[in-house]
Amino acid sequence: MARRAEDGAAAVEFALLLPLLVLLLFGLIQFGLAFNTRIQATNAAREGARMAVVGIDDWADVGGGVAFWEAVRQDAGLGDLDNCVLTTTDVVGGTLTVTFDYPLDLVIPFMPNPPSWRTGTATATMRIEQLSAVAGPGGC
């Protein structure tokens, strides 16, 4: 008789835990996607810094008629870049830093998406090997 009273208990327990397991699964997937986006953006910042430290004569045409920040955006493979900044000491042996914000598209079910999770910042700093044109690339 006790066996009959426990029929369906496993199904009820599974139904209670399933939403939590699905939330955990989608959260892990979104974390992986966000981490991949961060890696792409950091690599693009590194490529942009490398391009700048070896010397650029014309910021509006760094190769193939593409402007500096457009080349960085293409390397990132992301959407729009914001708050693009290139800071330099303008001395051979000094440092050059490329920084920009990139969009993060997180979609975690049943969880709010705070504004701080909607953008990420990529930064790369390198030693200047050859001075670039004085004007600089401007903003993006």
Tell me about this structure.
The protein has 140 residues and is α+β, with helices and mostly antiparallel strands. The protein has one domain (2-127). 41% of the residues lie in helices and 18% in strands. The protein contains 3 helices and 3 strands, in the order αααβββ. The protein has helices at 2-5, 9-53, 68-76; strands spanning 82-88, 95-103, 119-127. The chain has a 3-stranded antiparallel sheet, with helices on one face. α2 (9-53) packs antiparallel against α3 (68-76). The longest helix has 45 residues, at 9-53. The radius of gyration is 24 Å and the shape is rod-shaped. It starts with a helix and ends in a 13-residue tail after the last strand. The relative contact order is 0.20. The mean pLDDT is 87.
